[in-house]
Amino acid sequence: MGDGPLARHAREAREARHHDGRRRTLSVPVEVPLLVEAEGPVRILRLNRPHRLNAVSLPMYEALEAELAHIGADFETRAVILTGSGRGFCSGADLKAHRDHEASQAQRHAYIDTSQRVHRALQTLPQPVVAAVNGHAIGAGCELALSCDFVIVAEEAKLRMPEVALGTFIGGGTAYTLRRRVGHARATELILLGRYFTPAEALSWGLANEMLPAEDVLPAARELAGRLARNAPISMRLAKRLLDRAESVDHEEALRLESEALFTCMASEDWREGLEAFAEKRDPAYRGE
Question: Which of 163, 189, 223, 289 is labelled catalytic?
């Protein structure tokens, strides 16, 4: 299911033409920056630049944006896992590539705008997203994890947002979301000082849901995603939307939005399935209808 958004990257592996007109197979391996796996109703997205500790690139962001758009419109997908290939989750921006290649203004805009759209897609995806932070999450990597709904982090991982110290800037709405999660003082410390913080600190501050040995992170994410996938998808989508708006509405508006959500659920086939499954003492089979 994940092949479509990555097709243009795979096509780069076509045969190259010799100067004499004969064809040969390109010997240089072509980078596929995102791998997609389907496990029933769960999609696993793997950042796939392990030779650069999965540092982000424009092709990676483009592949993520396309795949998230596909997933958001796919009612068969009930939960998503974002993780990294190899020993890291994501080391942030590829500083070597930025240094070696002077980007034009148009290229800079494309990189920035696409990255922000990816964060918006993660934050607003109808399905819940679990970040399986299997290794270091630095800069953009840390921000990608914080754009997910759940974060399971390896206890060996290093976490940091060093952008200000490197003369660049944070992304993904971090100035807003981090302050909302940990408060002004802590957010200021992490962004302006750019210091490393530990998975244990992330857990205690509410930035992570669970801390485990690296080898246990993805299995735990799979188990969590499986549990989420068994929930009623309409109810989950509405709950995600209301949780995201919780701090921007007053109490009366929150009550009104909850009433509308409940009415929507009660009009669904899933509501009836939930009632019947409860009465019959069996697991419900929700269809998102």
Answer: 163
